[in-house]
Structures are given as C-alpha cells and as structure tokens.
Amino acid sequence: MPTFIILIILSFAMFIYYRIRAWQIHAPYKKKWTVTKANMGLGAFMFFFGLNRLFIQASALSAIVCGVFILYGLFIIYYSIKAYRYYWPRMVEESRRSVTSNGQ
Hints:
Elements: H1 2-24, H2 28-56, H3 60-103
Helix pairs in contact: 1-2, 2-3
C-alpha cells in the first residue's frame, strides 16, 4: 500500500534526522528530549512496517511476526511519549538557565 510506504519513509527519515541532531546537541536534557523524538520515529517505522507487511503477505507466521513488530512499535511510541512529557519541562528549564547564564 503506497500510503504505508510513504509513512514508513517519513518515519525513518524522522528517526535519522533526530538521531543525527542529537549528536550535535551538548545540553543533557535537550539531547535526551531529541533522542526521545528519534525513538518516536523508530516506533512509527516499526509500526507501519508491520502493518505494511501484514497487508502484503497474510500467512500465519507472517501475521505473528507482523504482530510483534506492531506491538513493539506501539510500545516504543507509548514510552517515548511518556519520556517526551518528562523531559520537556526539564529541557525548557535547562534552556532558561543557559540563556540567563550566558546573558550575565
């Protein structure tokens, strides 16, 4: 299905972009926040990959493997959203501290 292929490519591009971006960041909480966004892309990639394979080939073994991919992708997305919400206020505070310390 072309829709899933586009979503697979976009989520993988999101993963690669944020993973590379995280290497360039030195602030600890902002780095963890960025890695969390990369993990969301990885989870979405696994989820959409599993869905795509499930629609392409629907055998019993394929359904089990695709189910594992879908569940693991949802697991990664869920816990990445929780981590995103955890690191967001800490990253904002870290940014405020760096701005005020650089301004003095």
